[in-house]
Amino acid sequence: MHVEFDRDTCVGMFQCVAEWDAFEKDLNDGKADLAGSTEEEEDLFVVEVPDGEEFDAKFAARVCPVDAIEVYDDDGEQVV
Prior knowledge:
The chain is of the alpha+beta class. It contains two helices and six strands.
């Protein structure tokens, strides 16, 4: 399972930060950062979800008010 985070879309509500420790506040930019991620395209960050953190990753995606976070299963199907 992996997460794709569109940082350009992020509006800095930081609800994801409260739900999953992989997200951190960047108060300088007023946006969240996805720790340990790789920038696959401009402002599109991707990270593998560690075992046991799947629920938190999905919940972080669900609470994002601007849908900047997407979760994909191991087959590449979007689950959130």
